[in-house]
Protein backbone atom coordinates (compact mmCIF):
# COMPACT_ATOMS: atom_id res chain seq x y z
CA UNK A 1 0.00 0.00 0.00
CA UNK A 2 1.18 3.54 -0.70
CA UNK A 3 -0.19 4.39 2.74
CA UNK A 4 0.18 1.39 5.09
CA UNK A 5 -2.05 3.21 7.58
CA UNK A 6 -5.09 5.43 7.04
CA UNK A 7 -6.07 7.64 9.97
CA UNK A 8 -9.69 8.74 10.04
CA UNK A 9 -11.45 11.54 11.79
CA UNK A 10 -14.73 10.24 13.21
CA UNK A 11 -17.54 12.83 13.31
CA UNK A 12 -18.43 14.07 9.84
CA UNK A 13 -16.07 11.60 8.15
CA UNK A 14 -17.32 8.15 9.13
CA UNK A 15 -20.56 9.00 10.90
CA UNK A 16 -23.21 11.68 10.36
CA UNK A 17 -23.32 13.10 13.87
CA UNK A 18 -23.58 16.80 13.03
CA UNK A 19 -27.22 17.26 14.05
CA UNK A 20 -26.70 15.48 17.37
CA UNK A 21 -23.58 17.47 18.23
CA UNK A 22 -25.28 20.77 17.45
CA UNK A 23 -28.49 19.99 19.35
CA UNK A 24 -26.61 18.71 22.40
CA UNK A 25 -24.31 21.74 22.52
CA UNK A 26 -27.26 24.12 22.17
CA UNK A 27 -29.14 22.34 24.95
CA UNK A 28 -26.08 22.31 27.20
CA UNK A 29 -25.61 26.06 26.71
CA UNK A 30 -29.25 26.63 27.63
CA UNK A 31 -28.81 24.47 30.73
CA UNK A 32 -26.02 26.70 32.05
CA UNK A 33 -27.69 29.95 31.00
CA UNK A 34 -25.16 30.99 28.37
CA UNK A 35 -26.23 33.98 26.29
CA UNK A 36 -26.62 34.60 23.43
CA UNK A 37 -28.04 31.28 22.25
CA UNK A 38 -25.66 29.28 20.08
CA UNK A 39 -26.54 29.17 16.38
CA UNK A 40 -26.48 25.98 14.33
CA UNK A 41 -23.68 27.31 12.14
CA UNK A 42 -21.49 28.40 15.03
CA UNK A 43 -21.64 24.94 16.61
CA UNK A 44 -21.15 23.21 13.28
CA UNK A 45 -18.00 25.27 12.81
CA UNK A 46 -16.27 23.85 15.92
CA UNK A 47 -16.95 20.17 15.22
CA UNK A 48 -13.62 18.37 15.43
CA UNK A 49 -12.08 20.36 18.27
CA UNK A 50 -11.65 18.93 21.74
CA UNK A 51 -14.59 19.85 23.96
CA UNK A 52 -12.86 22.53 26.09
CA UNK A 53 -11.41 24.19 22.98
CA UNK A 54 -14.79 24.04 21.26
CA UNK A 55 -16.56 25.67 24.20
CA UNK A 56 -13.97 28.44 24.53
CA UNK A 57 -14.40 29.21 20.83
CA UNK A 58 -18.20 29.23 21.06
CA UNK A 59 -18.39 31.10 24.37
CA UNK A 60 -15.69 33.80 24.51
CA UNK A 61 -14.92 34.88 28.04
CA UNK A 62 -16.55 31.87 29.71
CA UNK A 63 -15.13 31.24 33.18
CA UNK A 64 -13.70 27.86 34.17
CA UNK A 65 -16.55 26.84 36.46
CA UNK A 66 -19.18 27.53 33.80
CA UNK A 67 -17.03 25.82 31.17
CA UNK A 68 -16.79 22.72 33.32
CA UNK A 69 -20.54 22.67 33.87
CA UNK A 70 -21.21 23.14 30.15
CA UNK A 71 -18.85 20.24 29.39
CA UNK A 72 -20.73 18.03 31.84
CA UNK A 73 -24.12 19.00 30.43
CA UNK A 74 -22.98 18.43 26.85
CA UNK A 75 -21.62 14.99 27.71
CA UNK A 76 -24.85 14.09 29.47
CA UNK A 77 -26.99 15.20 26.53
CA UNK A 78 -24.78 13.47 23.96
CA UNK A 79 -24.07 10.21 25.74
CA UNK A 80 -27.24 9.66 27.71
CA UNK A 81 -30.19 11.88 26.82
CA UNK A 82 -30.20 12.37 23.05
CA UNK A 83 -32.06 10.07 20.69
CA UNK A 84 -30.92 11.97 17.59
CA UNK A 85 -29.80 9.35 15.05
CA UNK A 86 -26.14 9.16 13.98
CA UNK A 87 -26.02 6.95 10.88
CA UNK A 88 -22.81 5.86 9.23
CA UNK A 89 -22.25 7.60 5.92
CA UNK A 90 -23.02 5.40 2.89
CA UNK A 91 -20.51 2.60 2.19
CA UNK A 92 -18.40 3.27 5.30
CA UNK A 93 -18.39 -0.23 6.74
CA UNK A 94 -17.87 -1.86 3.35
CA UNK A 95 -15.08 0.62 2.59
CA UNK A 96 -13.28 -0.06 5.86
CA UNK A 97 -13.51 -3.77 5.15
CA UNK A 98 -12.05 -3.29 1.66
CA UNK A 99 -9.09 -1.34 3.04
CA UNK A 100 -8.45 -3.85 5.79
CA UNK A 101 -8.65 -6.76 3.35
CA UNK A 102 -6.11 -5.01 1.12
CA UNK A 103 -3.67 -4.98 4.04
CA UNK A 104 -4.13 -1.42 5.23
CA UNK A 105 -4.07 -0.65 8.95
CA UNK A 106 -6.70 1.80 10.14
CA UNK A 107 -6.72 4.27 13.01
CA UNK A 108 -8.89 7.06 14.42
CA UNK A 109 -7.86 10.58 15.46
CA UNK A 110 -10.87 12.35 16.92
CA UNK A 111 -11.99 15.34 18.92
CA UNK A 112 -14.28 13.01 20.86
CA UNK A 113 -13.56 11.90 24.41
CA UNK A 114 -12.44 8.31 25.01
CA UNK A 115 -15.79 7.59 26.62
CA UNK A 116 -17.59 8.99 23.59
CA UNK A 117 -15.49 7.05 21.09
CA UNK A 118 -15.88 3.81 23.03
CA UNK A 119 -19.64 4.30 23.02
CA UNK A 120 -19.87 4.81 19.27
CA UNK A 121 -17.45 1.92 18.69
CA UNK A 122 -19.91 -0.27 20.56
CA UNK A 123 -22.99 1.19 18.88
CA UNK A 124 -21.61 0.87 15.35
CA UNK A 125 -19.66 -2.38 15.80
CA UNK A 126 -16.68 -0.85 13.97
CA UNK A 127 -14.02 -1.10 16.69
CA UNK A 128 -12.44 -4.24 15.23
CA UNK A 129 -11.39 -2.38 12.09
CA UNK A 130 -9.05 -0.02 13.94
CA UNK A 131 -5.56 -0.85 15.18
CA UNK A 132 -5.22 2.33 17.23
CA UNK A 133 -7.11 5.45 18.21
CA UNK A 134 -6.44 8.72 19.96
CA UNK A 135 -9.02 11.03 21.57
CA UNK A 136 -8.88 14.70 22.45
CA UNK A 137 -9.01 14.09 26.21
CA UNK A 138 -5.89 11.90 26.00
CA UNK A 139 -3.63 14.37 24.21
CA UNK A 140 -3.70 17.87 22.70
CA UNK A 141 -6.67 18.95 20.63
CA UNK A 142 -6.51 19.30 16.87
CA UNK A 143 -4.81 20.99 15.09
CA UNK A 144 -1.81 20.33 17.35
CA UNK A 145 0.06 17.41 15.69
CA UNK A 146 0.63 15.50 18.94
CA UNK A 147 -2.37 13.25 18.29
CA UNK A 148 -0.91 11.99 15.01
CA UNK A 149 2.64 11.80 16.34
CA UNK A 150 1.47 9.58 19.18
CA UNK A 151 -0.41 7.29 16.81
CA UNK A 152 2.62 6.95 14.55
CA UNK A 153 4.81 6.14 17.54
CA UNK A 154 2.34 3.54 18.81
CA UNK A 155 2.08 1.89 15.40
CA UNK A 156 5.87 2.16 14.79
CA UNK A 157 5.46 4.03 11.53
CA UNK A 158 6.97 7.12 9.96
CA UNK A 159 4.87 10.06 8.80
CA UNK A 160 5.18 9.17 5.10
CA UNK A 161 3.49 5.83 5.81
CA UNK A 162 0.20 7.48 6.78
CA UNK A 163 -2.56 9.66 5.40
CA UNK A 164 -5.19 11.58 7.40
CA UNK A 165 -8.82 11.64 6.24
CA UNK A 166 -11.17 14.35 7.51
CA UNK A 167 -14.00 16.76 6.85
CA UNK A 168 -12.85 19.92 8.67
CA UNK A 169 -10.11 22.51 8.60
CA UNK A 170 -8.96 21.13 11.96
CA UNK A 171 -8.30 17.72 10.38
CA UNK A 172 -6.44 19.23 7.44
CA UNK A 173 -4.36 21.52 9.68
CA UNK A 174 -3.63 18.61 12.03
CA UNK A 175 -2.14 16.62 9.17
CA UNK A 176 -0.30 19.61 7.72
CA UNK A 177 1.24 20.39 11.10
CA UNK A 178 2.44 16.78 11.35
CA UNK A 179 3.85 16.84 7.80
CA UNK A 180 1.34 14.16 6.78
CA UNK A 181 -0.58 13.77 3.51
CA UNK A 182 -4.30 14.41 3.83
CA UNK A 183 -7.56 13.51 2.12
CA UNK A 184 -10.55 15.84 2.35
CA UNK A 185 -14.15 14.65 2.27
CA UNK A 186 -16.74 17.10 0.99
CA UNK A 187 -19.82 15.74 2.76
CA UNK A 188 -19.00 16.75 6.35
CA UNK A 189 -19.08 19.84 8.56
CA UNK A 190 -16.88 22.35 6.71
CA UNK A 191 -17.40 23.75 3.23
CA UNK A 192 -15.10 22.15 0.63
CA UNK A 193 -13.45 25.49 -0.18
CA UNK A 194 -12.17 25.69 3.40
CA UNK A 195 -10.40 22.35 3.01
CA UNK A 196 -8.68 23.05 -0.29
CA UNK A 197 -6.27 25.63 1.12
CA UNK A 198 -4.54 22.72 2.87
CA UNK A 199 -3.78 21.05 -0.48
CA UNK A 200 -5.21 17.58 0.11
CA UNK A 201 -3.76 14.83 -2.07
CA UNK A 202 -7.31 13.79 -2.92
CA UNK A 203 -10.83 15.12 -2.34
CA UNK A 204 -13.75 12.71 -2.05
CA UNK A 205 -17.42 13.48 -2.60
CA UNK A 206 -18.41 10.17 -1.02
CA UNK A 207 -16.67 7.56 1.11
CA UNK A 208 -16.42 4.98 -1.64
CA UNK A 209 -14.47 7.50 -3.75
CA UNK A 210 -11.65 7.75 -1.23
CA UNK A 211 -11.47 3.97 -0.81
CA UNK A 212 -11.29 3.52 -4.59
CA UNK A 213 -8.53 6.15 -4.79
CA UNK A 214 -6.50 4.63 -1.96
CA UNK A 215 -6.64 1.19 -3.54
CA UNK A 216 -5.92 2.53 -7.02
CA UNK A 217 -2.95 4.67 -6.01
CA UNK A 218 -1.38 1.62 -4.38
CA UNK A 219 -1.52 -0.29 -7.69
CA UNK A 220 0.38 2.34 -9.67
From TrEMBL:
GO biological process: DNA repair
Superkingdom field: Bacteria
Key word Hydrolase present: yes
GO molecular function, one term: phosphoglycolate phosphatase activity
Annotated InterPro entries: HAD-like_hydrolase_sf (IPR050155), HAD-like_sf (IPR036412), HAD-SF_hydro_IA (IPR006439), HAD-SF_hydro_IIIA (IPR006549), HAD_2 (IPR041492), HAD_sf (IPR023214), PGP-like_dom2 (IPR023198)
Keywords in alphabetical order: Hydrolase
Transmembrane feature ranges: none
GO CC list: cytosol
NCBIfam families the UniProt entry points to: HAD-SF-IA-v1 (TIGR01549), HAD-SF-IIIA (TIGR01662)
Name the UniProt record assigns to this protein: HAD-IIIA family hydrolase
Species of provenance: Oceanospirillum sediminis
Lineage of producing organism: Bacteria, Pseudomonadati, Pseudomonadota, Gammaproteobacteria, Oceanospirillales
Amino acid sequence: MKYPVVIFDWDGTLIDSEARIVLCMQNAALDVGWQPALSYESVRDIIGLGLPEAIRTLCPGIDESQLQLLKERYSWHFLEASDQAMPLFPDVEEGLKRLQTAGCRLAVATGKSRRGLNQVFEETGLAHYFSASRCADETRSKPDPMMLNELLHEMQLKVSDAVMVGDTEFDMALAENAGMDRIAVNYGAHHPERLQKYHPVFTADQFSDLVDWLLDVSRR
